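User: My instructor asked us to take a sequence, write out its structure as tokens, and then describe one feature of it. I'm not sure where to start. Here is the sequence I was given:
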Amino acid sequence: MSTAIKEKNDINIIIGFLVFFYLTWTIKELWLLEYIYSFGEIISPLVEALVKSLIWIVPVSIYIKIHLYSDPISYLKMNVNVKVGVFWGIPLSLLLGAVLILEAFLFNGVSFHFSLSFDDYLNTVLMAGLAEEIVFRGLILQEFNKKLAFWKANIMTALLFLVIHYPIWIYNDIIFSIWFSYLHFSYWLTIWICF
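Assistant: Let's start with the prediction itself. The structure tokens for your sequence are:
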């Protein structure tokens, strides 16, 4: 296979992966979340963590093994500089947490109480960070960086990271936008209907 064909194939595969990933996550967020959280206070967070693993982590591992012919742990650099990462990661995370708490307390007038549920610990603290880093920094950034300069790859990854957090927002805005545009052009022909 020629280099140009292989590069085009690589690009098509990562685009296919991203489309599958975003579509699957959007379906889960929009239509499965209520069902997942119908199992109760203990089972629902476990189901949520399992579903997130199946949508985020498992496909990345399969992509790395099948397409990149590599060990996922090594490719994701999960076995490199572990002690240094933990040494710096814990204080930086605590510092970020302190800044966010201070911001909420000082600027938003929110009182501070540190009571997190099992779901918060499992899915917000542990699974969100792990899954997001594996997908975005572990796979997407490295794949983009093969074809682009680091800062371009980093900006594209950051934008994709931003977009994954808004499937409901995008869905609602698109639906409302289409609906109001339809009403505007089909019936009332006035912009005031959109307010």
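For the description part of your assignment, you could build on this observation: Confidence is low (pLDDT under 50) at residues 189-195. Try explaining in your own words what that tells you about the chain.
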